[in-house]
Design goal:
single chain; 128 residues; mainly alpha
Amino acid sequence: RALQIQQKHFGPDHIQVATTLMNLGNVHYNQGDYVKARDFYKRALQIQQKHFGPDHIQVATTLINLGNVHRNQGHYEKARDFSKRALQTQQKDSSLTHLPHKSCSNSDNFFLGFCLYSYSSSPPAFVD
């Protein structure tokens, strides 16, 4: 209901709508409904990229969430791809220069490593 009100008030591509979509995606993710979570995250990502561009921390967060959805569905190659994009986005976001960037990268590298490990018994090489 909040989503409908926001879409009517702000329009369907407003950043507040993306925030609500992310929250709804998180609810469905936590309930184990990964298909619905993915759909909400994808819609949020479209709005975020339109509003912020591709290299923003909010975009990276949504990419991580999509990677988590795919990992939990056993789609390890897709999870790896989303995680790699998220890490690259984090590294490009100039607003992160004041943050302890290594800790962000290390957690994403851990997730990326997990995806590679889970992808097969002998993980494919990760090449930039």
